[in-house]
Amino acid sequence: MFLKVKLKNRQEVVKMNRKIKSHFDRLDGDKNMKKKIGALKRKTLSFLVAMVLIAASMTSMTNVAVADWESGDGHKMHYPQLPKGPGGYSVMATVSSSPPYVADDWQCSESGPVTDIHFWGHCLGSPCGIQFFEIRIAEKTNYGVGQILWVREFPISDVIVSDPIDATPLHWINPLTGGSIINVSEMYWQYNIENIDDPFIQVEGKEYWLIIGAHWSVASPIWGWEECAEVYSFGSPAKFRQDLNQWQDIGSVRDLAFVISEGNAGEECECGTTATQIEVMAGEKDNFDPDSDTDPASPSPTLEALFGPGVGFDNPDINKHFIHTFTWEDCGNITGACLEVKLKALDTPLTHNDIFKLLFSDDDYSISYKIWEETTPSGQTETILLDLSGLPAAGTLITETTSGSENLLEMLNDEGYLDLHIEDDTSVDYAKLILCCEQNPSISVEKKVSNDGGQTWHEEVNQDVCQNVQFQITVTNDGDVTLNDIVITDYLPNCLEYVSGPAVNWICPPPTYVPPYYNLPGTNTPTWKCSELPPGSSALVTYTAHVVESGGCENQVSVEGEYDGQIVTDTDCATVIGVTTICLGTILIVFLLCGGLFLVHRKKA
Hints:
By secondary structure, the protein is mainly beta. The protein is elongated, with a radius of gyration of 36 Å.
């Protein structure tokens, strides 16, 4: 089961901070400016904070999270227009009684839906009481902003807002008057509108206008759209419009900071707090670049035998089969799984016949889906996110319906791999399998004893003093992860004596084990070690001991193993009841003594 929360861990936050700081440093070589930039900061987000944010979103409060889009993430425009930062302007885009709408243009780089819109801005004053953002998309004509093609309103509760980004100094401009204010703010924010229902469908190569207006309460401060860095300048100058008046150039600000993207579906597939998330990545997010240095697909021999040699990622040619096998290690019990795949329809009218297939080739199981409609244009891309615990029925159009009741979790646990087959006019940019793994290390030990040479085994036996018994120790990894550094320690009481040599039998699974040895020389504590014990496997020790005293002799064994710094242990015991008898040596001594006395007696007689 996935916890769908748009938060990243602290390491990702630090990574984002470094990238933004590096970006600012590149924009301005002036040392004094660099000193003003300073170190970018983020709040460390703990699990408790995440819970608060979830509660906040459920009560229509503003969502506050770390920045959702970062440099290197995907986009569907000419290139991302990143904020200028220090020294940049915010252009007032607040809708009130005199609403200035602000617009900037972009060129579509991939046909398909605009599912995510990211932009940067800040409020002049606090608190920032935005009620909703009005987002419009318009066609671009030779005369500027053309017909409005798409309009949506997004309540602030549906917008993911980053923590404030330090960028001293920031300035402000009012496009209605042309007036500006210098050094009014030190912070700005990233705003993320994601997974848009009924999104606008853009066409590769065409240019559009993104129009933003922030609606606010009367008592709230005004909001501005951040200027982008000059190096990201594109197309026509940014524009503003008041009411129904004509669009006009802003003038002092040429371009604004925003990104049009396809969405990062993998961030919706996050495991809960009781499971560890493992990502198995295949391919690279390089937007179907056939010249990129991407690792090839890796189909299993069985999969390759079924479909023949397949093509790799970013393949531009039609009539080819893409095949790949996902494998993983030490996941434990898989409690959730999803698959994210980015696809592109190639230039042929036959893409509507293409098949998306998940299979376990060694087990003769598969489920197939239709990918494209007959009206799908060549070049359209889709990023599909499938919950493998709730797949749609076979034959479904997978680019429209991605959920249902088909559950593959049991087979993922049993088989330990997943095959992917895509046929045959569809290119694959990347495929990512995400597993939620409950990793529960556990170990058990069982000890038995035999007084008949190992023919039968018991928890307790009687044996004559001066005779031998055999002990059998069975150690089992009954958890769901591989254990390391297995140590078996046997504590023999004084009434038993360890018999070393060929009588000891030690069976430990590969790869290696350490032969038995004494922890302390001269003590009665034999110890065995095994370097690795996979889930469900066992190590076996049998050895011989000599009964040297009568009475009850309880023999205890302990075992321990390690997984990821966690130590698991167990103990067990077996009992030998020593029975007093006259040993052969004792009989011989008595016989000699008695014989000697008899001879002395006869001599005297």
